[in-house]
Amino acid sequence: MGTIKLAILKKNRDGILNTAAVIICAFFLFPIYWLIITSLKSEAEIFRVPPTLFPSSLHIENYIIRGTGEFSIYKAFFNSFFIAVVTMVISMMLSAPAAYGLARYKLRGKKITILLFLVTQMLPPTLVLTPLFIIFKQMKALNTYAAPIIADCTIAIPFSLLTLRTYFLSIPKELEDSARIDGCNKLAAFLRIMVPVSYPGIIVSAAFSFLFAWGNLIYPLTFLNVNAMRPMTAGIYNFIGENGIAWNLVMAFSTLTILPVIIIFITLQKYLISGLTAGAVKG
Questions:
Q1: Can you give the pTM of this predicted structure?
Q2: 94: which of 146, 154, 186, 230 is 20 to 30 A away, CA to CA?
Q3: Secondary structure of the chain in the HEC alphabet?
Q4: What is the CATH number of the domain that holds 101?
Q5: Do 206 and 179 belong to one domain?
Q6: Does residue 53 share a domain with residue 74?
Q7: Based on the structure, what is the number of domains in the chain?
Q8: 202 is in which domain, residue-wise?
């Protein structure tokens, strides 16, 4: 009887916990649902009282209408994608070898270097905004894709370096020694052994580097004054005018903005969890 009661209690407890998890999940996902359905409504239906939980008619044209001037939702999407991808590639090309060197070799001033990278993660982007603007102006890089890409790399590279360093520290050094015995030099051992073994950490760093650049607002808003070059985060201001806000267009714009984020976290969830937890005990 005691065993049966425990089984019933466990089943009831699991049912309560699952129900609570579903309610919490629905609570956090409802704003995303409201964002999507609002993007498919007409402007009149958005302000209807009581509000509708589903559009009476689907307005797909909200995803087609242009903003002011030469601005286009899909051009902005391409701008965001281009800036984010190039930022991710540059960040990984620089941070992975640097993280490997800081993890494996005894370097003079290594602790100070790591501390400086940590300090950069504590600084708000607005603190370096003015110096970067002056530098880019002198380089004639304003209103070019290079300005937001370089600025985004100042955020992505320190994060990727610190993440990959702890991951490289968790990998046994014997793997490299075996590769050296088989005739690999340091570069070949890094590319053929360390990079494939540490791919979960590399995927995490690449994903977050992409997301840093994708979701950044202040850098493209400051460095890009050409409407056609602005990414999604800065382009949303085209639908905010003096006479009001086109909420249906803003919501359509926002839906396209969060789409890559959702896809990345769904498809790379396993790697993100393992990559962030692996090597966490290493210093």
A1: 0.81
A2: 230
A3: CHHHHHHHHHHHHHHHHHHHHHHHHHHHHHHHHHHHHHHCCCHHHHCCCCCCCCCCCCCHHHHCCCCCCCCCHHHHHHHHHHHHHHHHHHHHHHHHHHHHHHHHCCCCCHHHHHHHHHHHHHCCHHHCHHHHHHHHHHCCCCCCCHHHHHHHHHHHHHHHHHHHHHHHHCCCCHHHHHHHHCCCCHHHHHHHHHHHHCHHHHHHHHHHHHHHHHHCCHHHHHHCCCHHHCCHHHHHHHHEECCEECHHHHHHHHHHHHHHHHHHHHHCHHHHHHHHHCCCCCC
A4: 1.10.3720.10
A5: yes
A6: no
A7: 2
A8: 69-277
Q: Are 136 and 54 within one domain?
A: no
**227 and 161 co-located in one domain:** yes
The pLDDT tens digits along the chain (283 residues) read: 556 655 565 667 777 888 888 899 888 888 888 888 888 888 788 888 788 888 887 777 777 765 444 567 788 888 999 999 999 999 999 998 888 888 888 878 778 888 888 887 787 888 888 889 999 999 888 989 999 999 999 889 988 888 888 888 887 777 777 777 777 777 777 878 788 888 888 888 898 899 889 988 889 888 988 888 888 888 777 777 656 677 877 888 888 888 888 888 888 777 766 655 554 444 4
Distance from the first to the final alpha carbon of the chain: 51
Q: Are residues 89 and 29 in the same domain?
A: no
